[in-house]
Amino acid sequence: MRLLALAVALTAALPVSAGVFRSHLVGFNEVPSVASHAEGAFEAHVAGDGLSFDYALAFDGLQAPVTQAHIHFSRSRVNGPIIIWLCGTAAAPGPAGTQTCPQSGTIRGTVTSANVLASPPTQQLPAGDLADMLHAMRVGAAYVNVHTNASPGGEIRGQIWLFRH
User: Could you give all domains of the chain from N- to C-terminal order, each with its CATH number?
Assistant: First the structure.
């Protein structure tokens, strides 16, 4: 029931777009898995020109104070580098302009090429390449997670999938 409420809140707040991505975040998706009762939902709507996307990330029930949340570049069951910061805290503030994470609730924002960090050279995703990051999201090669003091590697995680074009 809690997840349904999160999903409804996300959908109502975002505009119609050129593509919609979604993710369900739980502790068992983390690598290694985390026995957390927390849940989260992520939704992103790509602008018609493909130059940005609006997102909402909702989460609650975390076992410890939130430190940060991001989008990472990697396939399922493999940890990958941070590519897009969604929120941070004093302990992990993120790049300039990164919004502050709440302990629970919903954050919203817009991502442009300016928000895309470079992957390690072996992954060949340069800074600012939003088009390639969106492609990675389309094929399931990106995930979103929320980190806490108790789970610095992430307490809840979900692979991002294209929901509709």
Answer: 2-164 (2.60.40)
